[in-house]
Amino acid sequence: QVQLVESGGGLVQAGGSLRLSCAGYGRLFRFNVMGWYRQAPGKQRDLVARITSGGSTNYADSVKGRFTISRDNAKNTVYLQMNSLKPEDTAVYYCNYVSGEESWGQGTQVTVSS
Fold this sequence. Notes:
This protein has 114 residues and is mainly β. Strand 9 and strand 10 form a beta hairpin. The chain starts with a strand and ends with a strand.
């Protein structure tokens, strides 16, 4: 079983930046996909960005050019650098791991004030 521990959320003004981190613990397989999803109140959980263990990435259209996902395989950690934040980016952000099985982090709140 894989445990994911997130950090880095918080409150920021519009136009600001935040960096989220997610560390994986337990039995992680070498080939996997890690990513970030977000869920705003009353809305479904949507993909923000994901990255394979080989470094391939894909992003939601709404964050392209503003967010960057990266990972350190040696540390089993994935990062999400969020720049030019907008109020509509406000949500709980969840880390996700997929390699046959799927695991989720507990979520970290990101609030962007206007």
